[in-house]
Amino acid sequence: QVQLQESGPGLVKSSQTLSLTCTVSGGSIATPAYYWRWIRQPPGKGLEWIGDIDYSGNAYYSPSLKSRTSILRDTSKNQFTLQLNSVTPEDTGLYYCARGRSTTWNANDYWGQGTQVTVSS
């Protein structure tokens, strides 16, 4: 059974960098051919794809967030991380990590429970 767990600060100030970590157990993030992704849900809105890192370490980003986003991995810890720079209150929301079997961002077989991030102005 694969499990994902998000961790990171729940409160970030505007203009700062949001950093979240997803710790994976029950399966290696280097196993072909999975996509490890970050998805968020702003309050009152639908899910939004942030980006992926695949089993080879290649990263893919949402065009709307690409300039501010970095997704990295640490295979020794079986973790992948999200850094979102220059945050604003519009970046407030519930942040999830998930595992997908394809590039279809909303087709995921395992999800973390989500972590609330609030950006203060």
The main sheet comes to: 7 strands, mixed
Number of strands: 11
Mean pLDDT level = 96
Helix run count: 0
Pick out the low-confidence regions: none
Radius of gyration: 13 Å
The assembly state of the depicted protein chains is single chain
Which class best fits the helix and strand makeup?
mainly beta
The topology string of helices and strands comes to: EEEEEEEEEEE
Content of β-strand:
over 45%
Cα(first) to Cα(last) distance is: 40 Å
Helix content: under 10%
Shape: globular
Task: Describe what you observe in this structure.
The protein has 121 residues and is an all-beta fold. It has no helices and eleven strands. It has strands at 3-7, 11-13, 18-25, 35-41, 48-54, 59-61, 69-74, 79-84, 93-100, 108-111, 115-120. Strands 2, 4, 5, 6, 9, 10 and 11 form a seven-stranded mixed beta sheet that branches. The protein has a four-stranded antiparallel beta sheet with strand order 1-3-8-7, with no helix packed on it. A hairpin with a 6-residue loop joins strand 4 and strand 5 (48-54). The radius of gyration is 13 Å and the shape is globular. The termini are far apart. The mean pLDDT is 96.
Topology:
Layout: E1 3-7, E2 11-13, E3 18-25, E4 35-41, E5 48-54, E6 59-61, E7 69-74, E8 79-84, E9 93-100, E10 108-111, E11 115-120
Parallel strand pairs: 2-11
Antiparallel strand pairs: 1-3, 3-8, 4-5, 4-9, 5-6, 7-8, 9-10, 9-11
